[in-house]
Amino acid sequence: IEQARQESARAYELDRKHVFHSWAAQATLKPMVISAAQGSQVWDGEGTRYLDFSSQLIYTNIGHQHPKVVAAIQEQAAKLCTVAPQFVNDARSEAARLIASHTPGDLDHVFFTNGGADAVEHAVRMARLHTGRYKVLARYRSYHGGTQTAINLTGDPRRWPNDTATAGVTHFFGPFLYRSQFHATTEEEECQRALEHLEQTIAFEGPETIAAIILESIPGTAGIMVPPPGYLAGVRELCDRHGIVYIADEVMAGFGRSGKWFSVDHFDVTPDLMTFAKGVNSGYVPLGGVAISQPIYDTFAQRAYPGGLTYSGHPLATAAAVATITAMEDEGVVENAARIGEDVLGPGLRELAAKHPSVGEVRGLGVFWAVEMVSNPQTREPLAPYGGGSEGMNAFVAASKSNGLLSAVNYNRLHMVPPCTVADDEVREALGMLDSALDVADGYVS
Ligand code: PLP
Fold first, then answer.
1. How distant is the alpha carbon of residue 340 from its chain centre?
2. What angle do CA 324, 328, 333 make, to 5 degrees?
3. Ligand 1 centroid vs 60 CA: distance in angstroms?
4. 143 lines ligand 1 (CB under 6 A)
5. Cβ–Cβ under 8 Å, residues 415 and 408
6. Atom of ligand 1 nearest to the CA of 221
7. Which domains does the chain have, with CATH numbers?
8. 39 SS3 class
9. Do residues 248 and 274 make contact, with C-beta atoms less than 8 angstroms apart?
10. End-to-end CA, the chain
11. Alpha carbon distance 29, 16 (integer Å)
């Protein structure tokens, strides 16, 4: 134990000396050391255990250190570590087959990338070349990645310092009843008015200038707003009417997170392109991709697709995907996520919402839940402002962490997003940790 502690201390020291972190003011950081992980649990450098209800960055859908995925990576490494994308490789072929067996409709071809943002970049490039149009519509309250096109599509404050005038992106509001832009009081009204707003946006932008509409099927980082029934079907219809490519971004919402293989499956909709990453192999080795419909595949059947990546379909990453998807099928992992959401996590969170005035709303599906924190339940004033932090939110998050709970936090929201494999008693334990942290947050309610 003493040796592990020393190793952690050295890792921390070297990190602060040499590692440049994402999205951060470097000198202010005090990052946590993670020295071990198993299933839904992680241990810090001191050996303290936490329940990982963040799934790291919402990607360890199969849990940490799944033995079959670890073995598959080891076996692939021993057999053949790397093969360039122009060659055929069995791990890549099988991963593509397995992914296509779960994607809806005719999304039967897969272009592999290294992660989510480059999947979005390529989906947009395909849509632009397919339509001969340039503009892309994306919603406010969304995240599509950190590369240039993807960050410009993003509808959250991380876009602001990265805006480029040439991006050709127009943003619109999607449905979000709790903070409705449309003065709606029911999901039906919200759905109808959000679709009217999108229709107007298309009309005023010029339908013949719009290559694509990109939507997270359930927006993740921006607040896990499950769209009302009919919204995505309405988007599909608008795209069909105007020859616009519908890109579903399933990077966070896919591979079991919402209790189905993909979140579009809740709404019976087939997009033209679908981006994925994260849960495809639980992030054990970096992997993302675009699933491509037949008409867009046909565009590039005789004409070269002008794009590629050195590591497209890397054997270690795709072998991990094969093992992950196979284990998810064999072990009922997606079904577990759905059941946990319906029977344990959803009801438990609703109980906490009823008990604590600092909780404005809880919402979600499967293992994909947001706790919306407010400083005033009547006015719905957020506990931290949009794009910022607050003392109350900081105190609440610190309390939940000191209780042993790791969660995902974004402005005034705490997201409970454990692995799809999480056990009932782990959820109950986490809800207990959250319950006592909410007592702290209640102290900031006016
Ligand atoms: N799209 C969505 C919906 C995401 O949630 C993310 C990451 O969180 C991305 C794209 C970007 O993925 P990556 O960080 O792998 O580039």
1. 18
2. 135
3. 14
4. yes
5. yes
6. 5
7. 67-330 (3.40.640.10), 332-442 (3.90.1150.10)
8. strand
9. yes
10. 46
11. 8
Structure tokens at 413: 């929201």
226-269 pLDDT tens trace: 999 999 999 999 999 999 999 999 999 999 999 999 999 999 99
Q: pTM of the prediction?
A: 0.98
CA of 144 to the centre of ligand 1 (A): 5
Residue 154: other Cβ atoms inside 10 A? 27
User: 341 is written with which tokens?
Assistant: 């959401």
- Say whether the ipTM exceeds 0.85: yes
Q: Which of 246, 239, 236, 216 is nearest to 155 (CA)?
A: 216
* Token duo for residue 168: 């050709």
Q: What is the number of the ligand 1 atom nearest to the C-alpha of 150?
A: 10
415 DSSP β-pair partners: 370, 408
Pairing mode of beta strands 135-139, 169-172: parallel
Q: What is the pLDDT of residues 100-113, one digit of tens each?
A: 999 999 999 999 99
**CA 255 to centroid of ligand 1, rounded, Å:** 14
Atom of ligand 1 nearest to the CA of 250: 3
